[in-house]
Specification:
single chain, 131 residues, mainly beta, 2 domains, four-stranded antiparallel β-sheet, four-stranded mixed β-sheet, 1 helix, 8% helix
Length: 131
């Protein structure tokens, strides 16, 4: 095991474990339901993320949030521009399928790139957590 991270959501917390094998590193994606039961398992090739050049990390901050409650609660990451608001806002929601909140595909983190890029330019972004 190389590293772990967790994405909370209403139905299941998703645990990501980076596993180092002889020929490559893989990320295990494991949803764990509210009763502590494993609700799935999938693997994808691990790659280290490098933010695009247009991202200005000093221009925004991030925090984990929950919007609403009950079955309609939306867990995710809020990228909030620095300074005084109000700010325009964007909500990024995944479609169906086996993905994380960044819509990661290999070394690409599509939703993270969008969120950080527009947050760098004064737009608040909420990325939904998978599950």
């Amino acid at each position: 095991m190389v590293s772990t991270r967790e994405e909370p959501s209403e139905k299941a917390d998703v645990v990501f474990i980076t596993c180092e094998f002889e020929k490559m590193a893989l990320d295990a994606r494991i949803p764990v339901d509210r009763d502590g039961r494993i609700a799935g398992l999938s693997f994808s090739q691990h790659s280290d993320y490098v933010a695009p050049g247009y991202v200005n990390s000093a221009a925004f901050r991030e925090q984990e949030v929950m919007v609403g409650s009950g079955e309609w609660a939306l867990h995710g990451t809020l990228s909030m521009p620095a300074g005084q608001g109000p700010f325009p806002a964007l909500v990024l929601l995944q479609g169906s399928g086996n993905t994380d909140r960044d819509a990661a595909l290999g070394p690409n983190k599509i939703f993270r790139d969008i969120a950080w890029g527009v947050a760098s330019h004064g737009v608040a972004v909420l990325q939904q957590t998978a599950e």
